[in-house]
Design goal:
This protein has a single domain, classed as LmbE-like (Rossmann fold, 3-Layer(aba) Sandwich), CATH 3.40.50. The chain has 9 helices and 8 strands. It is globular, with a radius of gyration of 17 Å. The N and C termini lie far apart (34 Å).
Length: 253
Amino acid sequence: MTKKKTALSLGAHPDDAEFMCAGTLALLREKGWEIHIATMTPGDCGTVQYSRKEISRIRKGEAAKSASLLRGTYHCLECDDIFILYDRPTLVRAIEVVRKVKPTIVFTLSPCDYMVDHEMASRIAKTACFACGVVNVETAGAKSFEPVPYLYYMDPIEGKDNFGTPVKASTVVDVTSVMATKEEMLCCHESQRNWLLKHHGIDNYVIAMKALGEKRGREIGAKYAEGFRQHLGHAYPQDNILKAELGELVHLL
């Protein structure tokens, strides 16, 4: 019997996955993988017109709609936007969702990114992967499991660190064939256009998403690509499963 293959994106906010790894998720879905998208927060501060309660409801609905395009499942850990903490309660929530999903691969945000929520989510995801098999860490309704999942860090926003230095990806995936799906998933997050326009000065965040995709694509001679760095610390898998699964679409730099 073939072991079920499952991919989990564990980010900070709804639309993080759609910006940075939805193309790769779509390619894995085409290969028969089960897809899950989880966010630490419902994005309850991503608005200039709704209450926290209302925007949370709207954004979780948008995220679920996006995940459904890959026949996937959306999860929210219900942390507070802007206030993601590396603390015991948050870690337990993250470990629990990883244990429930039992992912083969986890995609998370860059350890160095433009906002601390992203950086905290990255650290939390790293620990959640490591702790998924630690039996003395108890999680309600979810048992520990082995092995440690493969862990990949997505590109930071705009592909640069906090000092403006371009971040070099070690694994670049050609997502040209699924860019239409990635764009459709991002467009599910309709509430974010006005927010990004007012807060970030981005009038069309689809254009911003495609710009980074084109930048990564040029590195491998493709129209669009997504970049990742694989976590290769002790106890984490050392082989590159994306290369094994997606073959010539994956370029190792």
